[in-house]
Amino acid sequence: MNQERSSSAIIFYWGIRHLFPELDLHNIFFTQDYKQEFECLFEKKSVYNDPTIYINITSKEESSDAPKDSENWFVMVNAPGDFGQDWDKIIQETRKNIISKLSRILNTDIESLIEVEDILTPPLIERKTSSYRGSLYGTASNSKFAAFLRHPNFSNRIENLFYCGGSVHPGGGIPLCLLSAKITADLITKDL
């Protein structure tokens, strides 16, 4: 792995026993200090105590995604890749900081509303997806040549082996992952 890898994430999947009309499908609660957040991620290899928090609540648009009078929260914060840190400690501190921040912003005790919880961490992302260090986006996009260094959508060694997703061409994020799938589908159907 000669190329620098992108950052990772810690994701909490929470079943929330409450409805929050002030929240929408996509919600972002920004840090007060981006510089500190990114220094913590990339230099200290940890999660900042005031992380930017992204919350996706699909039950806002598809009510059957959560029980009546409840919501399904996908709560994600930026995290460094897995370099052997004490993830149990990082997760415990991150969870506490997220709950504190959201409780303050929403003026509600979030902890008491969490009915169920599952957690996805950089080591689990690596185990489940084989993404080195739990990288979410494959190689880092920190240079003007990064896009040209992404893995192609096909194998040069194994005939009819194709790749798509956030760690291959053209890159991470839902729109680019969908474009990756289209490119791969076009490559497959080209030979039919």
Q: Outline of this structure?
A:
This protein is an alpha+beta fold.
What does this structure look like?
Strands 2-3-4-1-5 form a 5-stranded antiparallel beta sheet. The protein has 2 domains: 127 residues, no CATH class; 41 residues, no CATH class. It is globular, with a radius of gyration of 19 Å. The two termini are 35 Å apart. Helix content is 28%, strand content 17%. The model has no long low-confidence stretch (mean pLDDT 85). The longest helix is centred in the middle third of the chain and has 20 residues. With 192 residues, it is α+β, with helices and mostly antiparallel strands.
Could you state the order of secondary-structure elements as H and E?
EEHEEHEHH
Give me the side-by-side strand order of the main sheet.
2-3-4-1-5
Class inferred from helices and paired strands: alpha+beta
Report low-confidence residues grouped into runs of 5 or more.
Answer: none
Mind summarizing the main beta sheet?
5 strands, antiparallel
Which oligomerization state do the chains in this entry correspond to? single chain
Count of helical stretches: 4
Strand content: 15-25%
Q: Percentage of helical residues?
A: 25-40%
Euclidean distance between termini CA atoms: 35 Å
Number of strands: 5
> How many domains, as an integer?
2
Mean pLDDT: 85
